[in-house]
TrEMBL record:
Lineage: Bacteria, Bacillati, Actinomycetota, Actinomycetes, Mycobacteriales
Keywords: Oxidoreductase
UniProt-listed InterPro entries: AKR, AKR_Detox_Biosynth, NAD(P)_OxRdtase_dom_sf, NADP_OxRdtase_dom
Lineage: superkingdom: Bacteria
Chain ranges of the NADP-dependent oxidoreductase domain: 15-287
Naturally occurring in which organism (per UniProt): Nocardia terrae
Protein name: Oxidoreductase
A Gene Ontology molecular function term of the record: oxidoreductase activity
Electron transport in keyword set: no
Length: 293
């Protein structure tokens, strides 16, 4: 199994990145099932330490979004890593607004997308965004206008590559007719596989697939289950085996597990060294979609 892939055909990145959503704490008093990502972490020094440790451990793709902590996550990345090493790739997203801790809404007005990209440039302290992803397609605006706004930023030299999030194969094809698509970021993990056709299509096209929520929770991970058994066979943790399954699933799979814990960070990154046998991969693949959810 290869340990790197070429993002956009030119940026070499490790097969496990780091997603910054988990740096922001859940807001007390709200629905715990919703990712709030509303405020920056109270302990900024600890968050910066996690970001720096991720890079020390070999992670060179950091994923964020303008809506995470209303932009404060971008500032944390810059405080931790700027000026950036030449091999560090920063991926961010625009096109979703977060007006309260429990609201996530698409907003694809072309002028808004361009404005948010400009703000990302400032907060991240970069002259060009390596990977700018459309966080959600807004049904109120034509897809070609939304993707066209991002393509304009590429033409202006402010963005290097374009990605999409939560899209179908048909939408990827439509967007690719406007500008090359370097990545797709959909919900996908061992027990949530509704994006199977997108995983297959991106692999065939050489498009990076960044599964968000890459490690599922549920009964499938309980003691005595397939996941726990295989983890014991490998001397690994269930989380590591879940990530190893993703890496085996597609040559363009690039999980971006997030955490605010240094110990969990090291556990996640070590998953890249785990090699599943054909039998282990097949046993994991046979876990019923939605198991334990």
């Amino acid at each position: 199994m290869t340990t790197t892939l070429q993002l956009g055909g030119e940026l070499e990145v490790g097969r496990i990145g780091y997603g910054t959503m988990r740096l922001a704490p859940q807001e007390p008093g709200f629905d715990a099932a919703i990712f709030h990502v509303w405020r920056a972490p109270a302990d900024r020094k600890a968050a910066i330490a996690v970001l720096r440790r991720a890079v020390e451990l070999g992670v060179n793709l950091i994923d964020t979004a303008d809506a995470y902590a209303l932009g404060e996550t971008d500032e944390l990345i810059a405080d931790a890593l700027a000026p950036y090493r030449d091999d560090i790739v920063i991926a961010t997203k625009v096109g979703a607004v977060h007006p309260s801790p429990t609201e996530w809404l698409p907003l694809g007005h072309p002028a808004y997308l361009r404005q948010q990209a400009e703000l990302c440039l400032r907060r991240l302290r970069v002259d060009r965004i390596d990977l700018l992803q459309l966080h959600r397609i807004d049904p109120d605006y034509p897809l070609e206008d939304q993707v066209g706004a991002l393509a304009q930023l590429v033409t202006e030299g402010k963005v290097r590559h374009i990605g999409l999030s939560e899209v179908s194969v048909e939408q990827i094809r439509a967007a690719a007719a406007i500008v090359p698509i370097a990545s797709v970021q959909n919900l996908y993990n061992l027990t949530h596989r509704t994006a199977e056709d997108v995983v297959e299509y991106t692999a065939a096209q050489g498009i990076a697939f960044l599964p968000w929520f890459p490690v599922a929770a549920g009964a499938h991970a309980a003691a005595g289950g397939v996941l726990a058994d295989i983890a014991a066979e490998l001397g690994a943790t269930p989380v590591q085996v879940s990530l190893a399954w993703l890496l085996r699933r597609s040559p363009t799979m690039l999980p971006i597990p997030g955490t605010a814990s240094l110990a969990h960070l090291e556990e996640n990154i070590a998953a890249a060294r785990i090699e599943l046998s054909d039998s282990q991969f097949e046993r994991l693949s046979a876990i019923a979609a939605g198991a334990g959810e």
